[in-house]
Design the sequence.
């Protein structure tokens, strides 16, 4: 029987609540299917670690992750530590250090969930956003000098490289090709940003020639927000730079009902390193420690992790349990207008996983 070595990094805030919930659901799945098992190792990195050691994770932390099959991540962010310290010290350090250059964010309206869009049938919104995850606006290149003086200057340089753009475009076209509609929208801003974004457009056109069966179009990022709201069914797979996709995917999550549901994977498509799966939400200071966090985003991230590991049947079993739970308003957490707790939702998903008929081998 295959044993998957999974690193769990709960991090901060509600990450400490939803990651144990995700682990509980995965353990229930392994017990029910008896097809594989998990060897979880928890890494208590984050703001508490920072307060004790002055860093968000130890220097040799990446080495400890490299031997794993996948990583399940909660959130980094603490009311007492600046956000750029928590983000760069942990999540971005892992994404960049393990070169997880493709961030993948599926968005659908799950059964029982209401979209704020008035004229949108559930099937109209079925997107996967591919976010360039290694460079662009979040390259980390820049600096700040003469702090506090009138001549103070600060820069954040947006860097695009031919290698970086080619690999994310190829990944996005391949993903679009694998979906029924075979449609890709390339988000850009090459009207205003006339160097790097023009390169981005040029490489999109070049790579498209390798995928003659994929229909693709180009949309400026500002127009893309309006299109997501007004014509959701016109979109399928979407590729955008780090910053653009960061913003578009929070909009996508809100349109699909709640930030608490949305999952993501930070993928190394070449599988040189483990990939990392996480709910897209943050630490949620307003509800942390209260047992109110919606664990669905973590469960759906666990489904993405199972798919990445090749456990397609088990992933389907977990996704069906998730959709049965979201269909029941009595099991909605507060972000969905309900009053269920993290524990109630988790127990319900685990019970459904255990009850599901065993699929024929
Ligand atoms: P947030 O996602 O933490 O919260 C935004 C709102 O959504 C809050 O009202 C929160 O209660 C609600 N919410 C989010 N997830 C929820 C869930 N699972 N269940 C119920 N409600 C949920 O975003 P923010 O307030 O912008 O950021 C708070 C902190 O988290 C900051 O320090 C930020 O840097 C960090 N953050 C980290 C990540 C990450 O690690 N991937 C992502 C986003 C924000
Ligand atoms: Mn974000």
Sequence:
């Amino acid at each position: 029987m295959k044993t998957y070595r999974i690193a769990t990094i709960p991090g901060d805030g509600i990450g400490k609540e939803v990651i144990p919930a995700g682990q509980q659901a995965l353990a229930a799945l392994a017990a029910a299917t008896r097809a594989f098992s998990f060897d979880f190792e928890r890494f208590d990195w984050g703001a508490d670690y920072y307060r004790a050691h002055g860093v968000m994770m130890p220097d040799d932390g990446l080495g400890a992750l490299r031997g794993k099959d996948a990583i399940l991540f909660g959130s980094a962010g603490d009311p007492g530590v600046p956000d750029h310290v928590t983000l760069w010290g942990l999540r971005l350090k892992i994404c960049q250090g393990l070169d997880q250059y493709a961030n993948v964010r599926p968005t659908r309206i799950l059964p029982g969930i209401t979209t704020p869009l008035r004229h949108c049938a559930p099937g109209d919104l079925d997107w996967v956003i591919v976010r360039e995850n290694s460079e662009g606006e979040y390259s980390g290149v820049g600096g700040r000098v003469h702090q506090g003086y009138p001549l103070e200057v600060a820069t954040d340089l947006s860097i695009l490289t031919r290698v970086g753009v080619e690999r994310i475009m190829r990944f996005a076209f391949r993903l679009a090709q694998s979906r029924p509609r075979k449609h890709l929208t390339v988000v850009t801003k090459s009207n205003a940003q006339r160097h790097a974004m023009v390169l981005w457009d040029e490489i999109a056109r070049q790579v498209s020639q390798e995928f003659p069966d994929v229909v693709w179009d180009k949309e400026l990022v500002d127009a893309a927000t309006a299109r997501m709201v007004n014509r959701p069914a016109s979109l399928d797979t979407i590729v955008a730079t780090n910053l653009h996709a960061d913003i578009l995917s929070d909009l996508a999550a809100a349109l699909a009902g709640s930030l608490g549901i949305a999952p993501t994977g930070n993928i190394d498509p070449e599988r040189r390193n483990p990939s990392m799966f996480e709910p897209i939400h943050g630490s949620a200071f307003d509800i942390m420690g209260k047992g109110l966090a919606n664990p669905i985003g973590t469960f759906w991230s666990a489904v993405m992790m199972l798919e990445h590991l090749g456990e397609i049947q088990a992933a389907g079993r977990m996704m069906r349990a998730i959709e049965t739970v979201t269909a029941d308003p009595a099991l909605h957490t507060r972000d969905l207008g309900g009053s269920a707790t993290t524990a109630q939702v988790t127990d319900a998903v685990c019970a459904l996983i255990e009850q599901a008929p065993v699929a024929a081998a």
The mean pLDDT is 96. DSSP finds eleven helices and twelve strands in the chain. The longest helix spans residues 15-33.
